[in-house]
Amino acid sequence: xxxxxxxxxxxxxxxxxxxxxxxxxxxxxxxxxxxxxxxxxxxxxxxxxxxxxxxxxxxxxxxxxxxxxxxxxxxxxxxxxxxxxxxxxxxxxxxxxxxxxxxxxxxxxxxxxxxxxxxxxxxxxxxxxxxxxxxxxxxxxxxxxxxxxxxxxxxxxxxxxxxxxxxxxxxxxxxxxxxxxxxxxxxxxxxxxxxxxxxxxxxxxxxxxxxxxxxxxxxxxxxxxxxxxxxxxxxxxxxxxxxxxxxxxxxxxxxxxxxxxxxxxxxxxxxxxxxxxxxxxxxxxxxxxxxxxxxxxxxxxxxxxxxxxxxxxxxxxxxxxxxxxxxxxxxxxxxxxxxxxxxxxxxxxxxxxxxxxxxxxxxxxxxxxxxxxxxxxxxxxxxxxxxxxxxxxxxxxxxxxxxxxxxxxxxxxxxxxxxxxxxxxxxxxxxxxxxxxxxxxxxxxxxxxxxxxxxxxxxxxxxxxxxxxxxxxxxxxxxxxxxxxxxxxxxxxxxxxxxxxxxxxxxxxxxx
Length: 512
Prior knowledge:
By secondary structure, this protein is of the alpha+beta class. About 50% of the residues lie in helices and about 20% in strands. It contains eleven helices and 16 strands. The chain has helices at about 1-25, 30-45, 100-105, 235-265, 270-290, 300-330, 340-365, 395-435, 440-455, 470-480, 485-510; strands at about 50-55, 60-65, 75, 90-95, 110-120, 140, 145-150, 165-170, 175-185, 195, 200-205, 210-215, 220-225, 230, 370-375, 385-395. Strands 1, 2, 5, 6, 7, 9, 10 and 13 form an eight-stranded antiparallel β-sheet that branches. It has a five-stranded antiparallel β-sheet with strand order 3-4-8-12-11, with no helix packed on it. Helix 4 (about 235-265) runs antiparallel to helix 5 (about 270-290), helix 8 runs antiparallel to helix 9 (about 440-455) and helix 9 runs antiparallel to helix 11. The longest helix has about 35 residues, at about 395-435. The chain starts with a helix and ends with a helix.
């Protein structure tokens, strides 16, 4: 009779697993949460003889174990996890003795531990693939493996000794960042859960193994995310030194420029005030950037600093574009450039729009900001995943692509067009005047100044690949960390030129 009951229970569970596979293949609107919870309930309530029960279909395998309160731990190796046809590499789960302690305080009778193995992530994918905050198109689950575990009589969490889940693989992870995640129910407004890293630590004991150490039981996987080109580890120190020195010099230069401007308010025209707003944005950007690596740990401080750094960068890019627009007005609309409350409107654009975008991101999902891992490569140029450095920055690739690289690209393209047009106009003017000598020198300074003023050096960010990576790292770090200092030199040259023109005008008036 017991064998008959066991057969009926096993058949019911197998039928349920096959139903789940059909739902996954047909992409039906069936609730995956109900299917998984139904499988868990049937496994936890199944009666079986012996120590364990093992059932499997094409993409799902389930195991159920009887545990007593004298539980000393369990190591579930690939010998127990019979490999389904898709699986070519082993998996393992190791449970600590602490696993049953809380349950045994309430229930002294026999406990059931169930383990569920999926080789298909369909049950844990969002149907809204195009939502940037719901699923990262640049991420995937390692080998499509998901391992889950649950103990009867309550949730298991906050374990002092973690559950160890090992994922072996036979693929190259170069160019990817791997992170241990678990499925957190209710974490998404559009689906029954989302991947989260809370309570899990990621280790890579070898190039072919990812070890997840988690303090609770649920469904686990390894998330692979496309990472930026790894920085050679031996170059981290010199690049950090260049950035530190350059940003410090730019901070001093920006402060000095603002003080000089305040000292000579009589020269405070709209052009100068636009320059000062750009200096203020660069100053905020440099300060936030220097603080970013210091606070790169999970927490609200890192989120706030990352949002501030993003805001400063967007403001800086916006004021660069404003400089290009203002240059167009000066050279293209010589006789009609008056705009009512011109600088006030520009301030609303330069400071207000970036603030709106950043606050909107924080309101929608603040987790787009936080510690951002920068991978490092070894001496052979291979990204091993063992070395990395972190800063407080944008973590969502959609936001980074659209509101960092996208806005930077549009600003650079616009200002390059304005710069080419301005140089053409300047060449025509000088050709008519046939200017030589000192005026030609001033023109050279003007061209160099406009090149810096319009932020053309920021286009180096788009050359971080292949043979361009190493020179780009040093050129980008040098020129853009010193951007505030270059703006200071431009301010001084323009001020000196203005004074020279005033002296020449005064001399001509005296001669007359």
